[in-house]
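Protocol step 6 of 9: fold each sequence in the batch and record its C-alpha cells directly after the sequence line. For illustration, a two-sequence batch is reproduced in full.

Sequence one:
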Amino acid sequence: MKRPFNFSAGPAAMPAEVLQQAAAEMLDWHGSGMSVMEMSHRGKEFMAIRDAAEGDLRELLAIPSNFKVLFMQGGGLAENAIVPLNLAQGAAVDFVITGSWSQKSLKEASKYADVGVASSNEASGHTTLPDPATWRLRKDARYVHICSNETIHGVEFQTLPDLAALGCNAPLVVDFSSHVASRPVDWNCVGLAFGGAQKNLGPAGLTLVVVREDLLGQASPHCPTAFDYSTVAANQSMYNTPPTFAIYMAGLTFQWLKRQGGVGAMERRNAAKSELFYGFLDGSGLYHNKVDKACRSRMNVPFFLREERLNEAFLAGAREHGLLQLKGHKSVGGMRASLYNAMPLDGVQALVDYMRDFERTRA
C-alpha cells in the first residue's frame, strides 16, 4: 500500500522503516517474549534499549561528554516551567520573542522567574529574526531563552547566537523541538537544549533534554524531584518510570538516521526540499510565504492562498491526492507544510505538482 504524504507539524510522520520494524517487534522484542511496552524499565532488556538510544543520539548530534542526555516527559510546554525551576531560582531570565512558542515559554517562565524581553519580532508579524547585536541582555540574567525554530510562524535561526561574543556570560537555552536532528548543533553556543520528540525524533510522550553538567544542581527548592535535572541525570532518566515505548521508537529513529548518513546528510536533504518548495512559492501568483528569506524555516513552511475562497477546495483536492495535514495553525490561518526528516523529496515534489496544477485550473 502506498502511504500518503503527511505534512503534519506534530505528531508528525515517521519513517516507514521504523514503523515496520516496530510492528515486527511488537509482540516479541529480540526473543525476550515481551513487547517493549511490557518490559520493566529497570530490566536488562530495556536498559540495553535506553543505552543504545543515548549512544546513537550522542553520535548523531555530536553531543560533548560534558553534557547530560535526559529522557523526560511533559513535552516542550512542560520544559517551559522545568527549565526555570532548575536554572532561574526566581532571578532574571531573558527571552527573545520570535513567535508563538517563545511567547508561551516567556508566559510560563514568568511564574518562576523575573522574565525580560531582550528582543522581539512581533512588529514584523514574526516574519523576521532580530539581529543578536541588538538584543538587550541583562547582566544578571541566569540564562537567555530562544526558540530556534518557530513551528507556527516558520522562522528559523540559521546559526545559533554566540552570547559570549555579545559580552553575555549567561548560558543559552534553546527550544529545538521542531528542528532537532535536521541540522548540526553548535554546542559551544548552548548551555541547555530541549525538545519534544514528536516532530523529528519519534512519537509524542518523550522529551529530550541535553544539559551542560555545570548547570546541574541549581534547582529551586520548589522544583518537583522528578523534574530536577540533577536527580534525573544521576538516575539515568530512571528516577520515575520513563516513557519506555517512546524511547524505544526514538531509538529506532536514531538508527534510521544513521543509515541515512547522519545529521549532515539529512541537512543536505532538508535544504534541497525547502529550496524546491520555497522556489515554487516565490514563483507563484496564487501562493505566497511572508517570512523573510534570511530566516525561513526548512522544517515548517506556512503559506497562504491570495484568494482565500479557494482554501477549502485546495485542502479537499490535496487530500484526494494523498497530501495530508496541510491546514495552517488556527492562530494564523492559511496553510502549512512541515518538511521534517521523514518527509522524502518525492513528497515535496508531489505537493508542488499538485499546487501547480491547482493554480493552473482554479485560479
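Sequence two, same batch, same settings:
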Amino acid sequence: MNPQLDALLAQTERAMIAAPRDYRGEYRVGVDLGTAYTVLIVLDENDQPLAGTYRFANVVRDGLVVDFIGAIDLLRELKRDVEARLGFELTHAATGFPPGVSRVEVRATANVVRAAGLDCRAEVDEPTAANAVLQIRDGAVVDVGGGTTGIAIIRNGQVVDTADEATGGTHFTLVIAGALNLSFDDAEKLKVDAREQERLYPLVRPVMEKVGTIVARHMFDYAVETIYLVGGTANFTGIAQVVEEVTGVRTIVPARPMFVTPLGIAMRDRE
C-alpha cells in the first residue's frame, strides 16, 4: 500500500487508546455495526483520527441487526467512553451497511444510531466506505467482516458494481469451535490470537476458499487486476494468499484492515 495510508491506519490504532481533550473543532463520527465487532471512530475536520473504540458483540447477524436493545446499549456505551476521553458530547454520526441489504435493514441500522443519541447524517455501503480511505482507481475492494463478504468493483475511481454474501469471520469461529470442541466465545478468542493462527489455518482454509469463490464469481464480468481485502477477518494469517490462489488476481491486505471501513464511514458524516 502507500505510506500515507499506513500512517493514517497507525494513527487510528493509537486513537483507540489516547485522545486529545483540547480539540474543539468540527468532527465526524463513523459507526460500523459489524457482526463481530462494533466500531466507533471520531475524525477531526481534516479527516484525521481523534478517538475511537470497539467491542465484540453478537447484536448483528450477517449484516442484519438482530438485537436492537443490545445494539443500542452497546453503542451508547462506546459513545460515553469516547466522549469521556475527548471531553465533549458527540451529537451526529454516519453508519455503514453491507451492499445488497434491503432499505428496511439500512433504516434499522440508522435507527440504532439515532436511538443511541446520534443524528444519523449519512448511510454508506461498506466497500464504498473502504474505498474512500484506500482511494483505489481500479480494482476490487473486498470487506470480509464477521458475517458477510462485501465486494465493490472500482473503475476510474467510481464504484460500478457491489455485492454481498454471507461468509466471514463468524464462520471461521464456528469451524474452530466444532473442530476443537470449544464454546463459540472461546473459539473467537483463539481465532483472534495471532500466535494461534498458523495452527488454526488448516481448519479455516476451506472458509477462506469460499470467500475467494464469492469474490471470483462477482468479478467474473470485470477485468480486475488487484483485490484489496479489508475488514477484521482480513487480519487472519494466509487469507490473502488463499484468495489470490482461488481468483488468480493479486490480493493485498493493508495494515490494520479492521479500521479501514469505519474510517471511510466517518468521512461521510457531513452536513
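Proceed to step 7 once all outputs are recorded. Observation for sequence two: Residues 130-258 form a domain with the Nucleotidyltransferase; domain 5 fold (CATH 3.30.420.40).
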